[in-house]
Amino acid sequence: MRPSERKGGGNAARNYGFEISKGKYICWFDSDDIMYKENIRYKVELLENYPNFDYCISKVKYFDHIFCYENLYSENNEFNIGTNLYRNYITGKISILNVNPLWRRKILLGKILYDENIRQLQDLDFFSRIIYTNRKIGAIDKDLIFIRRKNNSITTANSKQTIDVPSFLLVKNRIINRTPEDKEIILFSLKTVLWCMRLKMSERDYKNSRKCLKLCLENRNKLSLFMKVKIYRISVFYYFFEFLKIGDTMFKTFLKF
Predict the structure, then answer these.
(1) CA–CA distance from 66 to each of 32, 36, 146 (Å)?
(2) Which GO molecular function annotation, any one, does this entry have (predicted)?
(3) I want to staple 54 with a disulfide (CB 3.0 to 4.6 A). Which of 136, 160, 207, 239 is the partner?
């Protein structure tokens, strides 16, 4: 049981779980998802046999609602580690979800783990900090993790999207500031911020959509001249659309890169 004086929520629970853990390896796991019965064994064996790896992942498959082997499906971006793990992770070329990695406990000691003050993108925030400084990852070419897709997931197509904008922007800003010279990471991050802006426009939440635009404008000078002009043009049309209270559908054209 988590002590009553600790914050509520999943982030605090994961941090507390780590604090009281005694084992050599750490695996955080969510109750909605399912692991293959040999998942832990395969990953422990990999780390035991290859001491140069500090953590490892496996392939992942997804299912909707009720788990059934016949209905499992894959996504194309989940296992392409490539030559630049950090950039590939940030830009979505490889997906590393909370339930997938097995970590050596010793590499997490003394590190900031889950930020208990944010409500979304906590996995991205935590993993990006670790991966940026430690890219000693091992990979198992087996489907060992099964992720449940929920109707209310922000990654589920055609579902109602719920975004905690302060958390979203805080994490994106941290990522941008970590590698201010990496234009690929910055451009990808700002594209996701503009996606969030458009979502908030569709909800007529102009207060939060302006916050998204503000972050893009603050970081436009880190982009190429063409993209700086593009961001500025988007800002001009944004205020025009907000003044007319026009929704996001017509604005979509201006967000194409």
Answers:
(1) 10, 16, 11
(2) transferase activity
(3) 136
For 240, the domain range is 165-255
pLDDT tens per residue, range 178-224: 999 999 999 999 999 999 999 998 888 999 999 999 999 999 999 99
Residues of the chain above pLDDT 90, percent: 68
Q: Tell me, what amino acid is at 216?
A: C
Residue type at position 115: D
Question: Is residue 122 left, alpha or beta, with left meaning phi > 0 and alpha meaning psi from -120 to 50?
Answer: alpha
Indicate the burial class of 240 (C-beta count within 10 angstroms; 0-12, 13-18, 19 or more).
Answer: exposed
Q: Which of 22, 49, 27 minimizes the C-alpha distance to 40?
A: 27
- Specify which residues 138 forms β-bridges with: 56
Q: How far apart are CA 204 and CA 195, in angstroms?
A: 14
**Nearest-angstrom CA–CA distance, 166 and 163:** 9
User: Using an 8 Å Cβ cutoff, are 190 and 143 in contact?
Assistant: no
- At 130 the three-state DSSP class reads helix
Q: Cβ–Cβ contacts within 10 Å for residue 161, how many?
A: 16
Q: What is the largest CA-CA distance in the chain?
A: 63
The answer to whether the beta carbons of residues 86 and 131 sit under 8 Å apart is yes
Other C-beta atoms lying within 10 Å of the C-beta of residue 51: 9
Q: Same domain, yes or no, for 47 and 19?
A: yes
The reply to whether 17 and 126 lie within a common domain is yes
DSSP 77-120: TSS---S-HHHHHHTTSS---TTS-EEEHHHHTTS--S-TT-SS
